[in-house]
Amino acid sequence: MKLLEEPPEKTVFFITADNTAAVIPTIRSRCHKLFLHPLKDADMQVFLARHQLTDPDSNQRLISQAKGRPGYALELASRHHEDLTQIVEELASGASRALSPAQAERIAKEERGFSTFCDLLQERIREASLTSCRKGDQSAANRAAEIYQKLIYLRHETDRFNLDKTLAALKAAAMIGRL
């Protein structure tokens, strides 16, 4: 804390927070907000091409899923994340009724596996809610929004209390089955 109060000359700290209210006021008062905006699709295409990811179909899927976050697009392009995408698609389409314990364990053991799995589930739930709204099915849209909130809560509590990610992945997968 002393380092933040009296930093060495010409020192710049980058403090990242997704909830600025969680940063204590004495630190927050010394900060300047820097808003980083997602890249546009055309810029994402250039970025993916620079990283030798030039398959048009895959790139379009990555751009759609990454929502302007280039690092996340690279993460999604890895083999493990392609597997996660396939699992989520199968769960969302009803092709698979449940996540197997072995799949859940693999998700939990991978670095950022659980958080990426939740990201992909959240995106599918959001899409389901939007589709329901467009069709005028308010009941289905509300159900999807409710499931989305429950998934956010599950993810937050799992991270906050260091809960078993295997069990949390199984719970999260079961949620999408209720769409």
UniProtKB/TrEMBL annotation:
Name this protein carries in UniProt: DNA polymerase III subunit delta
Matches recorded under InterPro entries: P-loop_NTPase (IPR027417)
Native source organism of the sequence: Sorlinia euscelidii
Domain of life: Bacteria
